[in-house]
Write a structure and sequence with these properties.
single chain; about 650 residues; mainly alpha; elongated
Length: about 650
């Protein structure tokens, strides 16, 4: 129960998604939110960076179970003395325990390598539990010095001693001293130290008497500014707590505030743009640059905003993560900044640069949107060629719908498949095969391209119909993998299982009265040039699972090449209707009407559009019936006609030559 309470207390206040698939974060799905919101940092992460990483390399041990063998491995005498002291301590005989621990420390150095830190730490704890504060501080400092001298510390007692010493200072009312020690403990990587800082900051935020004293020291200023930025929302929940506006005003009143960037971020999140403007320029940090980018965008200065975002992206470490919970997606500020730069590049029509920004984020939804729906095929080919051997293509985005058996492909592999499908949709089959090569879908793609080629080169209508039907079956059975769009309308990156409607440009503008509208005003979130690209790069059908419509078209064309009263005609129309039975009711009805008007009843077993027999092409061949003149291909007629005209023309040429000779 204690653990659950602690978990609830430490969980940051964040916007939550409804229950359902846990899609990876993206920037372009909600452009207004991406540009308007500044993410709150994570207090535990920020607390661990209040001080520079210490030069001392101390072990941190904070798991619920001790490392195996931590209390063994010492010399015989030191082990005997320490175990005797520990037994006396747990029995409540502290004088005896203290005597045994002192005996451990009195042994020659080479005889007490294992348990010296244990003994000094326990002496500090016992002194701190009473009134001997000076002795406690001395013993805790001794623990750290012993570790520096090379004595063993399997339980991480050097780091733990910082927290114990800080607790004593806190008990005496020395907030500044306690904050300094907790910050040092957190800087070593101690989560307990960071949590302790959270409880201290929370208590100070609720105590108007303690706050001014803490704000006299730069470290205290950074701590409280960090608290206001990362945890300010929780102040609304606390009875008797100092509201966030009052905490921000107290921070703003400090001359030369340390942590001004955090106050600026907190002010932006709270809608205090005046405070954000005032403090964003006081420190040169990535966070300050990010706030300045938001302010510039609010003024409508997109060029300045992009410059500040570039500065922020350069400053944030590539792997810095503000989401410490291991079971959810990371929140990397550098990636989030990159997402905002994608939007700005799209707004100014610099589409290749938008693709470059998207690639740096390794966010597949954003990469897929730009490369599939905005870039031209030629731009995408150049983009892939330029990065083919670069490290950017090695990143592996998180999948949209996680299946444990799935292999996470790197960006390069996914982009090649995306381009292959674009080329195949555009009728450039031979080029598409180059990008399908080496994938699971190479063979189906080759068969599809060959079927279309056979249909185009077929001399007889029956051969063309059979080839078209082969292509139609492939388009229906493997259409997602061969022709599906990565984003709208097919959503291949989600395995076609979900339709993410909020990506539509029509719903991107923030609603009237929304916080995003108050921040962004009338700032357009897309451009005419981008909309034109979307229209030009759209698949041949805009319905979800558009390749089913392609399959139906191919089957319907095949039906037009066979006699209307044949079994093949009925079967082909039946399959065409089946392909779109759940996506195009209007087409389904038209195909049914066409069949009723022209076709024949061939079998009681056929249920139109549901259960369809295979077209019997061989039966038509074996009938050896000449196809009607109206079904002859135009090129056939043209060839025959040209043959009849050729003989008179040759005769005329010969006659003219004879007359010239005479």
């Amino acid at each position: 129960m204690t653990f659950l309470v602690l978990l609830v207390v430490l969980t940051p206040v964040r916007r939550a998604r409804a229950c359902g698939p846990d899609f990876p974060p993206d920037a372009l799905g909600n452009r207004a939110r991406t540009l308007a919101e500044l993410p709150d940092g994570t207090f535990l992460h920020e607390a661990s960076h209040l001080l520079p990483k210490p030069a001392d390399v101390f072990v941190v041990v904070e798991s619920s179970e001790e490392p195996e063998g931590a209390r063994t491995g010492g010399g015989a005498r030191e082990t005997e003395l320490y175990q005797s002291g520990a037994k006396a301590f747990h029995a409540g005989h502290w004088d005896e325990a203290s005597a045994r621990f002192l005996e451990v420390l009195a042994l020659p150095g080479e005889e007490r390598r294992r348990f010296s830190t244990f003994a000094a730490f326990m002496l500090g704890r016992m002194a701190g539990a009473g009134t001997e504060q000076e002795e406690a501080w001395r013993r805790f400092a001794e623990v750290r010095e012993l570790v520096r001298q090379g004595f063993e510390d399997p339980l991480g007692l050097a780091v733990a001693s910082l927290g114990e010493e800080a607790r004593l200072l806190l008990r005496e009312g020395n907030d500044a001293g306690a904050i300094s020690l907790y910050a040092e403990q957190a800087a070593h990587g101690s989560e307990i130290g960071a949590v302790s800082l959270l409880f201290v900051a929370r208590a100070i935020a609720q105590d108007e008497a303690r706050l001014p004293r803490v704000l006299k020291a730069p470290l205290g200023q950074r701590l409280m500014a960090t608290y206001a930025w990362t945890r300010g929302e929780e102040l609304r929940w606390m009875d008797g707590a100092m509201p966030l506006p009052r905490l921000m005003e107290a921070l703003a009143a400090v001359p030369g505030l340390a942590g001004a960037d955090r106050l600026a971020a907190s002010a932006w999140r709270a809608g205090r743009f005046d405070l954000a403007e005032r403090f964003a320029g006081q420190e040169k940090t990535p966070l300050a640059a990010w706030v300045k980018a938001k302010l510039a965008l609010r003024r409508g200065d997109k060029a300045a905003a992009d410059q500040f975002l570039a500065e922020a992206a350069e400053g944030f470490p590539e792997l810095e993560n503000w989401e410490l919970r291991s079971w959810t997606h990371p929140m990397r500020p550098r990636v989030r900044v990159g997402g905002e730069r994608i939007i700005l590049a799209l707004l100014r029509g610099d589409f290749p640069q938008a693709a470059e920004h998207a690639l740096k984020t390794c966010s597949w939804p954003d990469i897929a949107y730009v490369t599939e729906q905005v870039l031209t095929v030629e731009e995408l080919q150049r983009f892939i060629a330029a990065h083919a051997s670069g490290p950017e293509f090695q990143c592996k985005p998180e999948p949209g719908v996680w299946v444990e058996e799935n292999e996470r492909k790197d960006v390069g592999a996914q982009l090649r498949l995306l381009l292959a499908r674009r080329l195949l949709r555009g009728g450039r089959g031979q080029e598409a095969l180059e990008y399908f090569r080496g994938t699971t879908w190479e063979e189906p793609a080759r068969k599809y391209v060959e079927a279309l080629e056979q249909a185009r080169s077929a001399w007889r209508d029956l051969d063309e119909a059979q080839a078209l039907y082969s292509a139609a079956r492939l388009a229906r059975s493997a259409g997602m993998e061969l022709m599906g769009t990565e984003v709208a309308p097919d959503w291949t990156w989600l395995a076609g299982s979900f339709e993410v409607n909020h990506w539509s440009l029509e719903v991107q503008q923030p609603a009237e009265g929304s916080p995003a509208r108050a921040i962004l005003g009338e700032l357009p979130l897309n451009s005419e040039a981008e909309r034109a690209r979307l229209a030009a790069n759209a698949p041949p059908h805009t319905l979800r699972f558009h390749y089913r419509s392609t399959a139906a078209e191919l089957a319907e064309k095949a039906a037009a090449r066979v006699p209307p009263r044949s079994q093949a005609y009925a079967a082909l129309l039946c399959h065409a209707a089946r392909f779109v039975s759940s996506t195009e009711p209007e087409r389904f009805q038209r195909l049914w009407s066409t069949y009723v008007k022209n076709g024949a009843l061939i079998s009681d077993a056929m249920v139109f559009g549901q259960s369809c027999p295979e077209p019997d092409f061989e039966r038509l061949r074996n009938q050896k019936i000449a196809m009607p003149w109206r079904t002859w291909r135009l090129r056939t007629l043209a060839t025959v006609g040209a043959g009849f005209l050729l003989l008179p023309m040759l005769g005329a040429v010969v006659l003219v030559r004879r007359k010239r000779r005479q």
